[in-house]
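Side project, low priority. Logging it here so it doesn't get lost.
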Amino acid sequence: MLTFSPATAADIPAVVALVNSAYRGESSRQGWTTEADLLDGSRTDADDLHSILAAPGATLLLARTAAGELLGSVYLKHQAPDLYLGMLTVVPTQQGRGLGKQLLAAAEAHARSLGCTSILMTVISVRHELLAWYERHGFARTGETASFPADPRFGQPRQPLELLVLRKELAE
């Protein structure tokens, strides 16, 4: 049984370690969400997460076991009428067990509590398995693209990358 709660400043070191272990480096290869072949460097840092926590309408939702072990997180930002979802993360050794689906459900509940009508997100265009996973969970490609951030805090691309915008309409 997972519990979901917003992150605080005290959680930042654990969340930085979690996110970077799931997206980059050798540890990320234990799961299926690795970006290690696409980007060098880290996925996030403490300054980025402090900025996220300080931004109006933004939260980092954490998923913990009953014993308090951090297993996942997701960045959510209210951008009425939408909720932006990013950096959905599950411990690499726990991936494929439904934890990401539970984080998505918690994000949807958060969106509804804010009166949002849809959830928006971006995914790297060459992440075909991840795009398919989100599409199986109700997200659809909008046809919009965005440039990959030219900020070294998010990693150094090994090839040109672009982001696809996805949207999930929330039922009333």
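Brief comment: The longest strand covers residues 70-79.
Revisit when time allows.
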